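DM from R.C. (forwarded with permission)

"hey, sorry to bug you on a friday — could you get me a structure for this? deadline for the figure draft is monday and I only need the backbone to look sensible"
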Amino acid sequence: MAPPLYTPLPTDAKDAEIRLLTVFPADGGDPASVVCCSIRSQSESLAVALAGVRAHNAPNDFTIWADAICINQSDLAEKSSQVALMSSIYSSAARVVGWLGEAAGESNYAIELIARIRG
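My reply, with the result:
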C-alpha cells in the first residue's frame, strides 16, 4: 500500500497551517521539460501553469501556494478550513498570479486590453 499523499493539516483556525510548493529551475533550459504533475484531474492545466510561471522566474526557484496541490481535495474538512484561509494567503503574498488557462480563440485581445488599462 502506498503511503498517503498528504499529511493532515490542522483544521482549527487558531492552529492554521498551509502547504507550499517549491519549484526548482528546469534542467536544460526548457521551462516545461521537467514539470510533471500527477495530482488528480488538474494535472495538465497545472503543469502548463507551472511551466509558464517557471519561464518568468528562470533561473531561480520559487515557492508558491497552488490550491490544486497544496490542499488535499479529498479531505472536505481540510478543504473547508483552507478555503477560509484564502483571503489571508492572497493578502500576505508577495505576488499573486492567477492562471486562467492557455490562450484560446481571441483571448489574447482581453489580455492586451488588461495590459493597456494597467498602463
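R.C.: lifesaver. Residues 18-118 form one domain.
me: no worries. The helical segments are 43-57, 67-70, 76-92, 107-118.
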